[in-house]
Fold each of these.
Amino acid sequence: MYLALARKYRPQKFAELIGQASICKTLQNAIAINKVYQAMIFSGMKGVGKTSTARILAKALNCEHGPAIEPCNQCRTCAEITEGNSTDYMEIDGASNNGVNEVRSLRETVKYKPLKNRFRIVVIDEVHMLSNAAWNALLKTIEEPPEHTIFIMATTDFHKIPATIVSRCQHFEFKRIPFEVIKGVLKNICQKETIKISDYALYLISRSAEGSLRDAKKILDQAIAISSGDVKDDDVVAILGIIDEQTFINLTRHVFSRDRKGIIERISELIERGTDLRFFYGEYLRFIRDLIVIKSIPEAERLHNLNPENVSEIKEIIKQVNEVELLRFFNAVKELEQTMRYTENPSIILEYMFLKLSYFSALVNIEEYLAKINPARASAPAAPAVPKTEPSASKPPAAVASGDLIIALKARIEAEKPRLASVLSSSTLQLQNDVLLIQVAANLENAWKMMKENKTYLQQLAGQLAGKEMGVEICLQELKPEKNENKLVQELKNDKKIKSLKDKIKGNVISIESIKGGSDA
C-alpha cells in the first residue's frame, strides 16, 4: 500500500526536525542533565512537528541505549514507538476523548509503572478541545504526575488552554517553517523519489503551504498523482487554484502603458475562464506589495513572493516608475477592498480599478505643474538677494497680484508644517517686486512671533517655488485708534458724579446721547 510522503519522510531524530532548532536544543540539554519537565505544552500551527517531536522525545528517553540526546531507532523500544505499538507510549486525540470519564480513566492508568520502558509518555493531541470538567479532573495529575509519567499536550490554539494548566507546564512554541526551508525539503524528497519538478512548481507548493511542512508534502503527493509521475507547472496551478503570475504581469504592463483596450480584454478573459474575481483582487494586492519591495529594497530576493524567473521582466516594467507612484497604486487598490467584497458586480469594479490606475502615470507634482504654466519664471536668472528687514508695524506699500506662487506656497506649508499653515490662513499674503509680504492681524501677536521664527523657512520655500531669490517681510498691522466719541462715552460712564447719582436713585446708564442746540434764553 502506498505510504504518504508526510509519513514516509517523518522526522525520526531531533537532527531531522525542520525549523525548530531552539526547541530541539532545549529538549536535548534537558535529557543530558536529567531535567526533563514532567508536563509540557507544544503549541503552534498545524504541520510544524509538534507530534513528531513528542515521539522523538519519547524514544530518546526510553531508548535501550539511553536516555540519549538522539534515539538509536534500532532497538526494540524505538521501533515500537515508531510503529505505534508501544504499551507505554500513548497518543490520545483530545477532540474525541474530551470528556471527564476519559480523563478519569487516564488518571487511573498513569498511576501504575510502565510495563517495559523507563517512562510512560502520554501525548494528548488537540488538547484545547477538552471540556471544562475534563480540565478540572486533569489539573491535579498535571501538577503532581507520577515520577514515571510525562505528559505532552499538543495544541493549535494555545489561548484556549486554561491558565491554571499553563502555569503548571513548560511551554514550547513551534514556529511556522520558512518558505525557503520547505522548498529545500521538497526538492530533496523529489530527488530521492526520482521525480522531475521545476523550481517554479516547488515555489508555488511551498508558498501555498503557508509554513506547514505537512501541508506542503500533501500537496506534492497530489501533484505527483495528477501528473502521473513528473510534476508539471500547469498541474500545480490547477491543484492550488491560483492565478498565473503572468496574468498580473500582463495587466500591469497594460496599466503603465495606458493600454485601456488591453485591460478590458484581459479582464474579459478572466471572466470567461470563470476566475473568482474577488480572489483575483486580493492576489493582485499582494502582487503590488511585491512590486514595491522589488523597487524599493536592493537584493530583495527573500522578501517577495514572486517567481524568480519573472523578476527581470517585472523590473523592466517598473523601471520608469518610482516608489511613491507604486504606493499610490497600492492605496488606490486597497481603498476598493470593502466595495469589491460586497458588490454584486465585481467585474465592473475590477475594470474601474484598473482603468483608474492607468491614469495615474499622467499625474504630475505641483512643481512640474508650475513650471509648465509659468516657464519664464521657472527659467529666470537669479535676482539679487533682498536685504533682510525687521518686522515693521507700519503698513506695507500696495502689492501686485500674487498669482499661483502663493497657492503653491500654502499647499507645501500645509503638507510640511500644518501648524504654521493654520496661522498663515489668518494672514494676508501678497507679492511685490520679488518680496513676499505677510500681513498679520494686529490682535495676533503670537502668530506674528511664529512667523518670525519661520522666516528663513518661508524665504527658502518661496525661492524654491519661484526659481529665484525671494525676500520675505512680515508685518504686524496697526491697531485702529478708538473714536473720540467712544472715549467720551467711556469717560462719562466712569464719572464719579454720575456714578454717585446712579447709586442714589438706584438707576443704571442705558445710553448717552449728544444734544445739539442754541444757548439758554
Note: The CA atoms of residues 13 and 56 lie 6 Å apart.
Amino acid sequence: MQDLLSIPKQVRNTRAKAWILEMVRLCQPAAVQWCDGSEEENTRLCEELVDAGTFIRLNEAKRPNSFLARSDPDDVARVEERTFICTKRRVDAGPNNNWRDPEEMKASLRPLFEGCMRGRTLYVIPFCMGSPESPLAKIGIQISDSPYVVVNMRIMTRMNEDLWDRLGEDGDFVPCLHSVGKPLGEGEADVPWPCNPTKYIVHFPEERAIWSFGSGYGGNALLGKKCLALRIASWIAKEEGWMAEHMLVLGVESPEGEKSYVAAAFPSACGKTNFAMLIPPKEYAGWKVTTVGDDIAWLWPGEDGRLRAINPEMGYFGVAPGTSEESNPNALASASANTIFTNVALTADGDIWWEGLTDTPPEGLTDWKGQPWDPESGQPAAHPNSRFTAPASQNPLIDPAWEDPEGVPISAIIFGGRRATTMPLVFQAFNWTHGVYIGATMGSERTAAAAGKVGEVRRDPMAMLPFCGYNMGDYFHHWLEMCSQIRDLPRIFHVNWFRRNAEGGFLWPGFGQNMRVLEWIINRCHGKAAGHETKIGWIPHWGELNTDGIEGFGKEDFQEVMAIRGDEWRPELLSQGELYLNLYDHMPKEMVFQRELLASRL
C-alpha cells in the first residue's frame, strides 16, 4: 500500500492530498493513476477498454478515433430515486429532493466504499468546469475506478495536470468520489461493464462534495455534469449571487452584423439541442446562429450591468435517438470523430445507428445489447437513452466566444414546454417577476411513452426540478433577488413549438422555422417589434412574425397557434396550484400574487 500513497510533486494542495490519501485507504485499490488528460494517456486507456471488451473500435474511415460502449442493461440512465441532497436541515433540501442527514448517509455509504476498488485502478482526475480564467470556474477532483469515466471526462471537462498549479497549496476544489462498486477478488475475471445493483448519487452541498456508488453511466458517474455543474453549483450560486441553470446558450447574428445571445430552458423532449444548433430556413439567408452551450449555463451580473453566461462544459453528452441530418446535422457533425457512443446499434461495417438516424435501418444491425437485431421484434436497436460524448469544438456552429472567460451578454431568457393546447407559440413576460412566474410554472404534457396519465402536465420549474440542489421555493426567491443585481435585465419569453389542431397535427412546423420566433424575440429585445398586450403577456401581431415561405400557413393558422382561450387557462391555473401546495412554506409571495393577477385577468 505504501507505493499507492506516494503523491506527485506537482500536487501541493494540502486538503487535496489528505482527502486523496484517505480515499485510497478507504477504497483499497490495486493501483493508483494520476490522470493528466494527455493524448497519450487517452489513447492508452481507450486501447485498454478495447482489450477489456468495454469499447468496440468503430470503422476508422467512417468514424475516426471513435468507440462504441454497451452498458449493463440495469445501468442505462439517471436514477432519480437514488439521488440525494444531504443537508443538516431537511427544509434546505426541499420537497423537490430526496433528503438524508449527512452523517447518517455517510454512515450508510462508508461500508459500501470500504474495499470497493480491490483489484482495480483508482484514477485521480483533476478537472475544471468553465474556463480556468472565468470568475465562475470551479475545479473538481474526481476519484473513480472506471477508465470509461476518465475518457468521457476528458471530453466533457477541462481535464489536465496544470490544474494542480492553479490549486496551489490552499485552493478550493469540489471532491468527487465515484466507484462502480464491483471489487475484484484475486484471479477473478472482470466484466465489460462493471456496476452494482445498489446505487447512490449523493450530494453534500454544505461541504461541496459528491459521492456516487454503483453506476458507471452518464451523469451518475461523470460527476462534473449534473452533480457539480447543477446540483452543487446551484447551491454555490445562491450563496455567491449568480445562477447555475439547465439552459442552452446560443448566438444569433443578423445580416447587418448585429449579434445577440439568448439562454433557453426546456424540459426533456422539447427540442433543446435542436434549438441550440438551429439552422435558419432558406428565407433567412445572411442570418447566423451559433452555439455557446447545449445544456448548462452559468450566469452572473457582469461589470457592464448585463447578465453574462458561460458554458461550463467542453463537450456534448447528447441523446442519440431522433438525431439525424434532417433534425440536427450539426449534432451529427459534432460526433463525426473522436466520439464515444454508448448503447447505440452497430452496423455490419462498423459504424453506428439509432432510431431516427435514417428512415430505413441498415441490414445486419447488432443491437445495444450486442445481439443480432430483428426488425420484426418490436424492440429498439438502440436504447432510447443512448448517448454520444463529443467535443463541442467539433460543432460547425460553435460560437467564437464560447470559451470567453468573461462570458457572453444575454438579451433574452426563453422558457418552453411541450403543450398540445393552452400555450401560444410565443409570448413575452410583462416584467422580470412575471417572467420568473412563467418559468416557475413551466410544464410539459406527458406522452404515451411516459409514466402517468397522457395529457397530464408535469411541472418542471425552469427545467431544474431534477437538478436544483436546494429547496425550489428558495430557488424562486433567488431568481427574484437577481433582479436587483442586473442593471440591464434580459427580457423573458415563453415558447411552445408543439401546439396541435383538432385533428392532432402540429400547428407550427418547428425545427429551423423556429428561427422566425427567435427573430421576433430578438426584435422585441432591441425595440424593433411592437407586439400587443394580452392577458398573459405580449404577443406578435399578424405580419410582425415573419411567415413568408411557410407553405400553407396563413392568418387563420397564425391566429390558431397564438390563441389564448379562457376555458384552457382556468384548468391551467388549478394545475399550477398543486406546485404551490408542494412548496407552500417557501413559495415567494410574489409568485402567489402573480397567480392571483393572472386569475383576475382571465
Note: DSSP finds 16 helices and 29 strands in the chain.
Amino acid sequence: MILVAGVAASACGDDATGTGGSDGSGAGTTTASTGGAGGAPPTGEIVASITRYDLQVDLAAKAARSTLAVEVEPPGGDCFSAPSELPATAARFDGTDLDPSGISHDGAALRVCGPGLSPGPHTIGADVALVSQTFHGLDVGLSETPDFAGNTFSYLLSWVGGCDHFGPCDDDPSRLAHFTIEIDHAPGAVALCPGTLVAGSTTTRCELTGTPAPTYSAYAAMTNPGWVRTPFVTAAGVEVVFYEAAGGTIAASLDSVSVSDFLDWITTTLGPMPYGDELRVAGAPTVWLGFEHPANIVLYEEIGEIETSYQDTAMHVFMHEVIHQWAGNRTTLASAQDFAWKEAIAEYLAFVFERDARPAGEAEASLAYWDDISLQAAYHVRPEDEPPPPVDEFYGDVYGPGPMLLFVQLEPLIGADKVLAGIARFLQDGGAASVEALQAALEAESGADLQPYFDAWVFGSGAPSYPSFTVSTADAGGGMLTVTVTQAQGGAPLPCVVEVDVAGATSTATAVVDFGLDPSMTEVSVTIPFAEAVVSTSVDPRHKVVDAPVGLDLVSRPRRMVWKF
C-alpha cells in the first residue's frame, strides 16, 4: 500500500532517494463500504494505491489527461494528493468533473477534493498543460529535437522519480503498475509508447495490462514523422522491428544471426520476454545511448557509427536494453539507491554473451573499460551516504563498478555458473528488489556467506577505496616458482582472486592468488611451474579485479568518458 494523501512535503521528483516499498506491486486491499458513519460520504485525506495509469497525451499541443485507477483504503475520504510538478486545469472523481475550487497545487504536489470516495476501486483524473523542459542535461522531461534527417523527434520521458514532471504520479521507483497510453498526433506521423501497440492515423494506443512496469520506464511517449517501420528478425517468440528515419544505420550495423542467437540465449536464461511478442527499436537523437521502455527501446540514432570503449557499441547497447526488460522493468528498484543492480545485470549479461558467443575481443574490451572507469567512482555501488545522494549525481558511477564488483569479481570466488544462477533467481518473481536481495540470491545459489564481500566492496558511504597489489617472486627449486601478492593499500584485506602473469625470456605463466571471501591475511603466496628467471610480472592483466596501482594519484588522474544508457 502507498500513501498518496498529504505527500506534498515528501514528493520525490527525479532526484528522489526514497526507500520505496518491498513488494512493488502498487496493489492495495479492497474493503466494501458505503462511506462514513450513517452512510454519509467519507471526508478527510484519501489513502490509496495506484494500480493503473490511463494517459492521453498530445505532444505537439503539450496537453495531457491522466486517469489514475486507485484502490481507496478504509475509511475513504474526499481529498486526494499526489506528487505533481504541474498544476491541473481540471480534475475528476470517477469521471465527474470537480469544482475548480477543490483543485490546488503547491509546486510539488497536486491536491484535489470532491465528493467523498468510499473504500474500493475508483478513478481520479487530472488535465495538465505540459512544459517543454529537460532535466540534468539528459533526455528526461519533454523535448523536441531534430534527428539526423531533419525530422522532429518529440519525447516524453520519465526516469527514476520523474513521472511527476507530467502530472499526478507516484514517482517512487519501487511501484509497479499497469498502463494504457494514447498519443494524439498529426496524420502520417509515427508514434511509439511502451507495451502492445495499435497504430492509428491520428491516435496511437499502447497497453501494458499484463506484466506491470515501473513509472520511470513505462511513463513515456514519442513521435517522429520520419520513422519507417522495418521488421528485422523473429526469434525466441519475439519479432524485432526497427523504427528509423530513411538512411538510418542502426539495423544495418547489427548482425541478424547474432541478434537471434542472443534472444534465444537471454530468454533461455531469464524466461519469455515479459512484455509481449514484439520488440520495437527506435532510433532517435538522444543524449543517452539507449533507454529501456517496456517492449519499446530507444537507441541513439548514430550508435552504429560512433566509437566508444565497447568493441561493438550498437550490439552491446542493444543487448543491454533488452536485458532491462527483465532487470529494471519486470523487476524494479526497491529504492533509487539500488540503481546499480539493474545496470550491473544488463552490463554483465551482455558481457557473458560477448564472452561466449561474440567475436574475440568484445568481452575483453568491456572488462578493460569497466576496470578503468571504476577508479573514478565517487560513490559506492550501493551508496549509504546520509543524506542519500540524488540519483542523477551517482548513477554514472555504477556502469563500471556495478558489473565488476557485483559479478565479475565473484566468478572465481563462487563460480561463474553460480553467479548466473543467482541473477536468474533474483529476477524470477518480478516486483521490487534491493541490492541486499541480490546478495541473498547469490548466497542461495552458491551456499557461500557473501556478507564480508559485500561489506568490503559494495556497501558504504563516501568514495570507495580499492586495493593496491605488490608482487614478489622466489625460485622454489625443481622448476617451481613462488609468487607472493600483498595488498598494500593498508587496512583490512579485501576479498578477491588476483591473477599475476609471470614472464621469462622464453615463456609465460599465470599465478592465481586467492585471498578468499573473508580474508585474514594481506599476503598470499602460491607456487607454480616456472623454470626460468623472471623478467617481469603483471597484476590483473585481464581486468578481473578493480585495483589501484601503487602510487597512482586518483585525484589528478584524468577522468575517463562514462557511456550512459
Note: DSSP finds twelve helices and 31 strands in the chain.
Amino acid sequence: MVSLFFPTAAATRSFFPRRGIAPVLSAAVLLAGGLLASSAVAQQQTSAAPQQSTDTTDLKSTAPAAADPAEAPAQASAAVLSNTDTSKKTRKSSDKVVQSKDTVKNEKASQKARAQQMRTNPLQDVKSEQPDKQLYDKAMVAINKGRYEVARLDLQTLLSTYSDSEYQMRAKLAFADSWYREGGSAALAQAETEYHDFIIFFPNAPEAAEAQLRIGDIYFKQIDRPDRDFAKAVHAQEEYRTMLTQYPDSELIPQAKQHLREVQEVLATRESGIAAFYATHENWVASIARAQTVVDTYPLYSHIDDTLIGLGDAYAAQSRYIHTLKMPEDAKARLLKIYDDQAVAAYSRVVTQYAASPHVEDARDRLEAMNVPIPEPTPDQLAASQALEDSRQTYTLANRAKGLILHGPDTVQTARIGEPSLADPKATLAPAVAKKIQEAFTTASNPNAAAKANTAVAATTAAGTAADAGASAAAPATAMSLQDIPSSDAAPDAATGSSFTATPTGVAPVSSGGGTGMGVTILSHPGATSTTPTANGLNAVGPANTTELPPIEKAAPAPDAVNDVAGQKTPQGQAPTLDKNGNPKKTKAEYNKKDESSSTHKKKTGLDKLNPF
C-alpha cells in the first residue's frame, strides 16, 4: 500500500519510526481520511467537467507532475477512485428537476392547511404589539388547541376592555366560533345565538354571510337519518336559503349551495320512502301525492328516476283497477285514457330529462309494454343529464364504513352541480288527488251532467258578480241615522204591509215582538211587562210594574234518614241521648272479640282467629 500511494523513495526507506504498531495505525487512519476527502473532490471535479476523460491512463498521462510530494497522494487517489464505469452520463445543470409524488402531496397538504388557517384566522399575518391584537392571537391559539374556555375569557376581555378596537368584529365572530367548534347541543344552541347577534351588530360586513352559513351548519350537523325526525333538516334548509338570498355576492355561495343540495337530498329521500311504503300497501292515492311532491320540489334528487317510475306505476295500477270495474265501456275507456296518459308522461320524463340515469331502461321497457312510441332525448337534455350523473360521487369503503358507524344521513350521491330550489312549490296532498279521481269518475260516467254542472257553476259565479255590482250601485249615498228607523208600533206601509218603508242595505229588520223599536226588549225582573216606548223609541227609567215580590216559601221538611248499616229506618223525632252537660252522648260500639283485640280484651282464639270474615 505504501508503494502505491507514495513515491519510490518513500518505498525504499521506512517512513514511520520503529517504536511500535500504535503510531503506525494512527498514521494509517489519518491517511485514509485524507484519501476519502481527495476522492470527494475528484468526484466533484468530474461532475463539473463531463467532457473530461475519466480513463485511468488518460489521467496519468495528462496529470501534471506534482511539484510537492504532499500533492502526490491526492493525485494518485483521484486516479484510483475514478477507475469506474463511465457509460452513465452525468446530469446537466440545465435539466428540469421532477418532484416526487410524496413531495407534491406534502406541498398540497401544506397549502390546504395554510388556507384553512387563513379562513380560521385571517389576521394571523398581521404583526402588531398592541394589547388587543395580542389578546386576539392568544385566543385563536387557544381555540386551535381546543381550550375553548380560555379562548372565550380572552375574547371577552378584548370585547369589554377595548370597545374601539379594530379587532372587535373578528373577536365577536371568534367568540361564536369557539362555541361552534366545541360541539354538543348546548354549545351549538349558544353558538346560534352568538351568530345571530353578530349579524345584528354587523349586518353589512362580509363576515355576516359566514355567520349565516354557520347557523345553517349548526342544524346540518344535527340532521338524523331520513326515517327519523326531519325538523333539523327543515331548519337547515331555511337557513341556507336565507344565506343564498340575502348574500348573493359572498364567496361562500358554492359551499352553501352544496350543503343545501345535501339537505334536500335527505328530505327527498324521506318523501320517496313514504311514497314507496304506501305503494307496498296499495294506497295509490297517498303514494301518488308523495311521489309528485318529490318530482316537483327536488329535481336534483339522486333517485329521481326511481321516483318517476314509481309514480307511473301508481297510475298504471289505477288503470288496472279500472279494468276490473263493471261500468259502461265508453266511460271505462275515458278513465283508462286519463290514467294511461299520466303513466306515459311519468315514464317519458325519465327517458328524456334523465336519459343518463341508471334506470332509464326500465322506463323504456314500460313504455314499450304499453305500445307507446318511445321519445328520444335532445342533445342538450342528454348532455345535462350526463353532467348531472357524473357529478355524483361513488361509494367507497370509507363511505360505507362511515355510514355504518355514524348516525347521519347518506349524502354520498348528492349532485355537485345544478341550482337547488330556493322556494318549495305547492305540495300535492292526498285529499286533492282523491278529489281529482272522483271528478274523473264523474266526468267519465256522465260527461253531459258534468258539462251542465260546469255551466251552472259558471252562471252562478257570473250572477253573483252581477248582484254584487247592482247592490253596490243601489246603496244609499249617505248612511241611515237612528231617526230614520221607525218604532215597532208605527203604521204599516200600504204597499208592503210593513211599518218600514224601505229597509236600508246592511240594516237588520226590527223584531215583530214588543220592545224598544231596536229589536231589544228590556225587563227588570221575571214577571215584569215591557213598558210603552216614549219618543224616539226610548223607555222610561225604572220598572213600570211595582208589585211586591211574593214571600220566600219555607223549605220542605227533610226526609227520614235511613241507617244503611242496620237497614232500618230511623224513627222520626228520635232524640239523641244527652249527657249531664246537655250534649249528645257519645256511645261506644259494642266490642266484638271476633273482629278486634287489644291489651284490655282477650284475643281471639280458635277458629275465629283464622277466619278473616
Note: DSSP finds 22 helices and two strands in the chain.
